[in-house]
Each structure stands twice: as structure tokens, then as C-alpha cells.
Amino acid sequence: MLAAILTIALVVQDQSPLRASPQDSAPRQATLWQGEWLEVRGERQGFLQVYDHGRERPGYIRPQQVRVYRLEESSAPQLQAVVEFLRDTSGAEALGIGYTAALLRAANSSQVGPELFDAMGTFADRLAKRASSRKSNDEALAAHLDVAASYGVKLVSLEQEGRTRLCYDGEAFRRVLALGGTPEARLRAALALTRPECIDPALRQVERQALDEWRASVLEQVDTGTLPAWQANRLHLRRAEVYAALAYQWARRGEADKGAKASEHSVDELARVLKSELADEDRSAYAVAAVRVAASRWASVPAPETLAAGPRLELAPGKPGETCLRLVDEKSTGTPLATQCTYGLVWPSSIRRSPQGTSVTVAVQLLEGWTELWVFHQEGDGWLLDALSPATTEPGVGYVELAGFTPDGSRVLVAREALVEGRIKSSFQVLKRDTLLPEKTAERPDDSGTFKRWSTADWRNRTLAVR
């Protein structure tokens, strides 16, 4: 015997009252929100007689507050048309989720493809972004979140910088990648699944590396061949960020070869971005990605030739997980000129020395996206160490790199970039060697005659600061 076909009423108006009897003056059984569904059991006195399975209670509702559908194959085209309309309608995410769920129930197996899961993921992801907005904090939003949860949509709550962010767990997007779909749909799925702001900051290092390896595998499932350039740019930017993170993580674990390949991959992906095709909303993402890539680019830079006679840096293991830098000189009696140990990642390929041998610099990456420049400089008969940070803020996203020395060695040229108050700030500075205080600062290298004249060819060929 065939099961009866269910007829449902999808609520399309927020705060719709479910009445105890078919009169507007009847007691309110419940307040319904868009996207909720009710089983239709009849009609009386201008009201639909319904049953609310979620609250396990019968009631009555006005027909204009709902849309009625029979969950059968013939209803699929109607439901599909509404889903396509709602997917670009901001604020209607809960209603879209309800319609998509109804479509999945009404359609036969041959009609269920990746496009339906793409729609479900789009609604859920947009609802999570809306809930995470600082401006969103109202009764309707809370109700819409409950409606989404009633359909099995899972949103994960993360504590970040004193505020709560909601992120969609991505189940529908995983189905899009598994089932295939258009390149645009696969791109949306990959970008949503690998969003950096939805990474739990409490993850341990091993867990974070495993996650980034998975993120890289997801991004590689998208082919840019038929994508418009502005969409392909987004994929290249995300890949660049992920591989830059892996370069740092693999290098920390002593897997230098894998770290070098990841770094090369990140630089290559950044180079594939067509700046002329960047969407306005992607320009800041491009700047942030470039800084992240630059922070770990030393992983793929070949080690310099052995320095001639004079002060040089030697790296030696310290405590577990620690690297010690020893500044030595053949003229010394075996006692290092200076010593400093760090738990940061020291890049040997970044070691440089001034022509007079009065300064030796090295890049030290303290965090995944934060690289400092350590400067050993001679003062009288002794040596001092100063660490130049990307910005006078809490470590986050930024780097400092050596651009060269003036011929007399009295000035040090550095480039700094850092994420400060939501935007990337760049500066090209000429520092006094003895104090390392800025003598000249410019926003572009060509704006400073000294910097433009004496920055080295090696720096100009490799830097990402000049984009």
C-alpha cells in the first residue's frame, strides 16, 4: 500500500501566529517564523488546519502567511524556482533552507544533484555570516537560527577576540564536491570549507597542520580552467595562504623539502592572481595573502654562499624546540660575540652581513604569519641584538625584511608590512645602524632616494613588498 503524500505549509512571514481555533481572536498557540513547515490537515472558516510536528500541537493559520505544497515529484519545479530566487535574497536564509529541504523531500533521486546542496550550503553559510555580524542581534535572527537547526543545519560557535563567530560546518558543501557540479559551485564549496576565520584558534599545532593539509586538498579539487578570472583569483589567493601556512608548519617539524615546495607553491599561486581582474571586495584579501606568503617565503630561498672572513651566524640546537644563534668570528678566541636562543623558526637562507661586517641580520618567524628581522650590530668593542617587528601591535600578520645597506654600512634598509586596524600598512625605511631608529620612511620604495639607490638586486628580485 502506498504511503499518503504529505501536504505541507511553509511559513513565509515572520511572527505568524498559530491559533488554537479558526478565529483571529483565538489564543496564540505559538509564534512561527519563515522557513518552518506545518502538515496541512484541512481548512476551516478561512484558516488552514495544521499540525506542528516540531512543537507537537495542532492549530490554525491564515493561508496568506504560508505557501502550500504537496511533497511529490510534480511540485519540484515550483519549489526549485523559489529556491533559485531566494538564494540571492539577503535575510531569507531560513526560508531558503526550508524550501530546499522541501525540494529534497519532493524530488526523486534523479532530480537531486549538487545544485541543491550548493543552495543549501549557500543559505546556511550566509545565515552564519549574518549571525556573526556585529549589527545582527535581534529576535528574528535567533528564530531563524532555530529554524535552520530544525532542518539539521549545524552552525559551530567559535570564540575569537572577545566575540562569538558562527560558522557553518559545511556538510552540504562537502556533498557538492563529492557529487560534482559546476566549477562555480565547486569554487563556492571549496572557499566556504577553507575559510580562515572559521578555524578554531584553540587548535593545537598538530591539529592545525592536519587541517591545513585537508584545506589544501579541498582547494586542489577545483579546476580554474573555465572560471572567470575574478573568481579564479579567489581560489589562487586562498591556495597561497594555505600553502604559506604549510611552509611554516612543515619547516617547524624539520621537513625542509616539503616546506620549500609549499613555499614555492604559495608564491606561484600569488603570482597567478590577475590584479586587473580583482573584485573590489578581494583587494584587501590580496594584500593580506601577499603578506602571509612573504612571511614564510624564506623556506624556498636557497641558502647564500658561505660568507668571507668576518662575523657570521651559526645555528645550534638549544632546549627541546629551541634554536640558538651564535655570532662568531675567526678573530675571537672561541667565545661567541653574541648569543640568542628562540623558539621561533630561524631562516638560515635570510642571513646577510653588511659590507664592513658591522651588522648581521636574520629573519625569525615567530608565528605562522609573523616574521621579524633580528639585527646583530657592533657597538664599540661589543655586539648588540635588536629585533625589528613588523608593527608596534600584538603579533598577527606581518613581516620585516632586509632590503640592503648603504655603502658605508651606517644605514640599514628595511621593508615592513603588517595588518593594522583591518588594513595592510607598508613602509620602506632607512634606519641608523647604531640605534635602528628610522631616518627616512616612505610608503613606496621609489619615494625614498636612499632606499631606491641602495636596495639590493637580490631583494628587488625576490621581495613581495613591491607588487
How does this structure look, described?
The protein has 467 residues and is α+β, with helices and mostly antiparallel strands. Among the domains are: 7-70, SH3 type barrels; 203-300, no CATH class; 344-462, no CATH class. The protein contains 12 helices and 20 strands. It has helices at 76-86, 93-106, 114-132, 139-150, 171-179, 183-193, 205-219, 229-252, 256-271, 283-295, 449-454, 457-462, and strands at residues 7-11, 16-19, 28-32, 37-44, 47-52, 57-61, 66-70, 155-160, 163-168, 312-317, 323-328, 338-342, 345-353, 359-367, 370-379, 382-388, 398-405, 411-420, 423-432, 438-442. Strands 13, 14, 15, 16, 17, 18, 19 and 20 form an 8-stranded mixed sheet that branches. A 5-stranded antiparallel sheet has the order 6-5-4-1-7. A 3-stranded antiparallel sheet has the order 10-11-12, with no helix packed on it. Helix 3 (114-132) packs antiparallel against helix 4 and helix 8 (229-252) packs parallel to helix 10 (283-295). The relative contact order is 0.06. The mean pLDDT is 93.
Strand fraction: 25-35%
Helix fraction, binned, reads 25-40%
Count of extended strands = 20
Sheet bearing the most strands, described?
8 strands, mixed
Arithmetic mean pLDDT: 93
List keywords for this structure.
elongated, 33% helix, alpha+beta, 467 residues, eight-stranded mixed β-sheet, SH3 type barrels
Question: Short description, anyone?
Answer:
The chain is α+β, with helices and mostly antiparallel strands and 467 residues long. It is built from twelve helices and 20 strands.
